[in-house]
Specification:
Length: about 110
């Protein structure tokens, strides 16, 4: 039996949903020694947006730099360097709750709202 999924075309709605899902599946920081510039929730949301926009790490950084309202909604005081996102992606794809969280967003470029 197929379930219907409503798709979103709104980057802000998608980012809100990614934040909500990641808050249930991930700790705020990957280590007690983290620099604490960005939470894993913020990085996860940016990675979901990267997939949504079908761009690379540098591309999503450029897009987010131009979208002040998205930065505010994500609670970003600065935009991460593209290598920060690259390393977060590698870390979040490892086994554990974060991989399940990532799997729920990796099905298609438009994600259920």
């Amino acid at each position: 039996m197929k379930t219907q999924r409503s798709m979103t075309r709104s980057p802000k709605a998608l980012a809100r949903m990614a934040l909500r899902v990641s808050r249930h599946a991930l700790p705020a920081y990957s280590s007690k020694f983290s620099k604490k510039d960005f939470t894993q929730h913020q990085l996860f949301a940016l990675l979901v947006l990267r997939q949504f926009f079908r761009t690379d790490y540098r591309g999503i950084v450029a897009l987010v730099e131009d979208m002040a309202d998205l930065q505010q909604m994500l609670g970003l005081t600065k935009v991460p360097h593209f290598t920060t996102l690259q390393k977060a992606h590698e870390r979040l794809l490892k086994k554990g709750p974060s991989s399940d969280c990532w799997a729920s967003f990796s099905g298609s470029p438009s994600v259920a709202a």
